[in-house]
Every structure is written in structure tokens, then in C-alpha cells.
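for the recovery benchmark. C-alpha cells below, seq after
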């Protein structure tokens, strides 16, 4: 305790005297001191102090409140916790399923990893030692301004959203009273994102240049409308080659929305490639459809980063324009539209929560009052397959 803090006759209650008070030299008090209480927190192995009060009675009352809060695990730390400690506690709480996202659901492991990374790498070096209550909007804006010349708008948004998630957790637990990231000015998203949409013939040539194990993830994205997280987690138990269908999003971590879990009929092009992979893998009864390459098996799942580098070299050697998994999936959406598949059915196949918004009442009616029937899905499969086959026949006739 500082020399100006003197114990009173009440247990755990101290008087904070002003600078120059005679008590500093052992005399009688010559100031109007404030009072605070101190209680030992056994869990954190440190003393916790109350705010300073104007009277001994108020300090004693605050000490009683503090003791009750410690006994019930509801320590009122408003503003006292530093950002680095808050990040550790938030991440631990999220991994244990106690901290929920803005939709009231558990954070997915990869979302927790992303939030932890952006806070630790981009926020903590500057603000890690500051208390949550003292971090201002200007502090966060300064970080955004420094990152803007070096990062895309979407990446900066992920950093700021990570901070917002931390403060949402802190506010729910009275550890912070404000969110300094709430009104931060963010850079615009890329106005013209680079996106490649392949024609069915181009996509066919890209796959033909690859081995089965390399072509299959792209075929699942382009012909099966799968997302990356779904592709790397797809198991043979979720593929029915006899019926000609697969189920996406069986694992919780593979779902982006509830609609992400869906059954997709296999068009012939994908059905054939899956059969080939099934035979090459020795007719497995279980296991991953797209297993990791032996040299990239650190996570137990396919490393799509290494896959991308590998196939780009192969395509470059064949003088083919590369395509990403996401671009293959976007190409599928374009093909569905060109084939005449109704938007509502296409949204089910793509795993979207609702069809993309378009102006006009017809789209509202489509989104709210129409439903995809099983026969509609099968009809869409036939329509999509006919469209792809027609492209193949057209190219063959030239």
C-alpha cells in the first residue's frame, strides 16, 4: 500500500490521505481522506480493491458487496480487466461453449481460432496492456488506418469484428460498458473482386488435367455446390453412390447456415468421378472422401492451400487458367441459372439461407411462400445434367 493508505479500525478498510497530509510524517490527519476496502481473492491469488468512497460507512458497505460477489463468482470488474487477459478468458469461455456468438449459438472452432489470431496479432501489440474501459474508438480507428494500406477491406473487417465479439462478451459480463469498435470507420470492400466464372467446357478441361485425388475437391465444388469446409469434411458414409446423392453439412463445423445441411443429387460428371475415387481408395466404408496428402496431413484433413499451389502448377504447364474452389462453386451457381433451374431450387442446392435478394415483390413471394419439393430437386438435377451434357455435345460437334 502507498504511504498515504492507512488502515482504519475496521477490517479491510483503508483511508487514502491526500498529498501533504500530516499523516505522512506521523501526525494527525489534516485532510479529508477517501476510503476503500480490500479483499483477498483466493481464485486469482491477489487482493481486490473497491472504488474509493467518501465515508467509512460507504467503504464498509462496498466491502460487503465485494465479498458477496467473490463468493458467488460475480466479481464486478467493470473496466478493470486488461485486453490481453480479456482475450484469454473470452477464448477459453468460447471453447467451453459458455460464450455465444451474436446469434446465440456456440462459436465454431475455426471461428474461435480466427478471433484469437486477429486479436493477438493485430490488436494486442498496441492495446493489450490497456484496460477495456480506457480503450477508445480513436484507438481502434488508428489501428484500422495503419492497416488499410496493407490489407483488404474484408480482412480489416474480420479484425474489427473479432474485437466486437470480445466486447460483446465483456459487456454481457459487466467487464466493459462500451464497445470502441462499434462505430469505427472501415475501408470499402473491393469494388471489383477478382472472380473467375468458368464455362462447363473450361471446367471439364481443368479437371481432366488433374489426377482423381486433385480433381475431386474441385468437382465437389463445381458440380456438387460444396463449400470448402464441407468438402474437406465430407465422408463416404455421407455419399450414396447407388442412389446418386450426397449429404452436405452433416458435421456441425461444416455448416455456415442451417440450410447448409442438405442432400444434393449427383450429376453424371460428379457421380463418375466419385466412383473412380471410391475404387482408387479401395472401396472404403468410412473415412474422408478427400483425404489429406501424406505430406500435408498435419490437421488430419485436406490442406486446400497446398492443393491450390499444386494444381496451379499443373494448370500453368497445360496453359489453362486456374480456378479456385470458391470460383468453382460460383460457376455452379451461374450454370444453374443458365440451365433454367428456378432460383428457389438453386438456393436449396447451393445451401443458401434464402435466395439472393432482388428488387420486386416476386422475389419476396418466392423467398417466403414457396418450398422445394423432393421432385423439384430431382428435376433440377436432370435439368442441370442436361445443360452440362449439351455443352459437351456442342463442343464435340465442332
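predicted aa per position
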Amino acid at each position: 500500500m502507498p504511504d498515504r493508505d492507512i488502515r482504519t479500525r475496521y477490517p479491510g478498510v483503508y483511508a487514502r490521505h491526500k498529498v501533504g497530509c500530516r499523516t505522512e510524517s506521523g501526525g494527525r490527519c489534516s485532510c479529508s481522506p477517501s476510503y476503500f476496502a480490500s479483499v483477498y481473492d483466493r481464485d486469482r491469488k491477489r487482493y481486490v480493491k473497491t472504488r474509493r468512497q467518501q465515508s467509512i460507512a460507504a467503504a464498509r458497505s462496498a466491502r460487503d458487496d465485494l465479498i458477496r460477489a467473490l463468493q458467488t463468482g460475480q466479481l464486478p470488474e467493470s473496466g478493470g480487466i486488461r485486453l490481453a487477459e480479456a482475450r484469454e478468458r473470452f477464448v477459453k469461455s468460447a471453447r467451453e461453449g459458455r460464450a455465444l456468438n451474436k446469434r446465440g449459438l456456440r462459436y465454431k472452432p475455426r471461428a474461435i481460432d480466427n478471433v484469437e489470431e486477429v486479436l493477438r496479432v493485430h490488436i494486442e501489440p498496441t492495446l493489450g496492456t490497456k484496460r477495456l474501459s480506457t480503450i477508445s474508438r480513436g484507438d481502434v480507428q488508428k489501428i484500422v488506418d495503419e492497416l488499410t494500406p496493407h490489407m483488404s477491406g474484408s480482412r480489416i473487417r474480420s479484425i474489427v469484428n473479432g474485437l466486437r465479439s470480445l466486447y460483446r462478451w465483456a459487456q454481457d459480463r459487466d467487464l466493459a460498458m462500451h464497445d470502441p469498435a462499434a462505430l469505427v470507420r472501415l475501408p470499402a470492400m473491393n469494388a471489383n473482386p477478382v472472380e473467375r466464372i468458368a464455362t462447363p467446357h473450361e471446367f471439364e478441361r481443368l479437371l481432366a488435367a488433374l489426377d482423381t485425388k486433385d480433381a475431386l475437391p474441385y468437382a465437389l465444388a463445381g458440380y456438387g455446390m460444396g463449400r470448402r469446409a464441407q468438402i474437406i469434411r465430407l465422408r463416404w458414409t455421407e455419399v450414396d453412390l447407388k442412389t446418386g446423392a450426397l449429404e452436405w453439412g452433416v458435421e456441425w463445423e461444416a455448416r455456415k447456415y442451417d440450410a447448409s445441411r442438405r442432400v444434393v443429387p449427383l450429376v453424371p460428371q460428379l457421380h463418375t468421378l466419385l466412383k473412380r475415387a471410391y475404387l482408387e481408395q479401395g472401396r472404403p466404408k468410412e473415412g474422408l472422401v478427400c483425404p489429406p496428402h501424406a505430406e500435408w496431413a498435419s490437421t488430419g484433413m485436406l490442406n486446400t492451400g497446398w492443393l491450390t499451389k499444386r494444381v496451379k502448377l499443373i494448370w500453368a504447364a497445360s496453359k489453362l487458367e486456374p480456378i479456385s474452389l470458391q470460383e468453382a462453386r460460383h460457376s455452379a451457381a451461374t450454370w444453374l441459372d443458365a440451365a433454367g433451374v428456378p432460383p428457389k431450387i438453386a438456393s436449396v442446392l447451393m445451401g443458401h439461407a434464402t435466395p439472393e435478394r432482388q428488387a420486386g415483390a416476386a422475389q419476396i413471394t418466392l423467398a417466403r411462400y414457396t418450398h422445394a419439393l423432393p421432385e423439384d430437386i430431382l428435376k433440377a438435377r436432370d435439368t442441370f445434367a442436361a445443360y452440362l451434357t449439351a455443352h459437351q455435345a456442342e463442343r464435340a460437334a465442332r
